[in-house]
Design a protein that fits this description.
With 73 residues, the chain is an alpha/beta fold. It is 29% helix and 21% strand. The protein has helices at residues 12-20, 35-40, 50-55, and strands at 4-9, 24-28, 46-47, 69-70. It has a 4-stranded mixed sheet with strand order 3-2-1-4. 23% of the residues are buried. The mean pLDDT is 87. This is HAD family hydrolase. InterPro entries: HAD-like_sf, HAD_sf.
Length: 73
């Protein structure tokens, strides 16, 4: 939806930056950090890689607009 966002990142700093925006963060494990670190930083969900996220897209937070945050303009 226009005016709404959800962030995908691969480091705790990405997830923290998303939260500071404030935007919901989803993470992938490609940045060298484990699931625990990404969830501790605030990731709503963590996927093995972008291929895993794509394979699970229909059941991920990206498919559920209730997780999207309004974009401040």
């Amino acid at each position: 939806m226009p005016g709404e966002a959800l962030f995908v990142g691969d480091t705790p700093w990405d997830v923290q930056a998303a939260a500071g925006a404030p935007v919901t963060g989803v993470a992938v494990l490609s940045g060298g950090f484990g699931e625990r670190a990404l969830r501790s930083a605030g990731a709503l969900e963590v996927h093995t890689d972008v291929g895993d996220l794509l394979a699970r897209l229909d059941s991920s937070a990206l498919a559920d607009p209730t997780h999207f945050q309004p974009v401040r303009g």
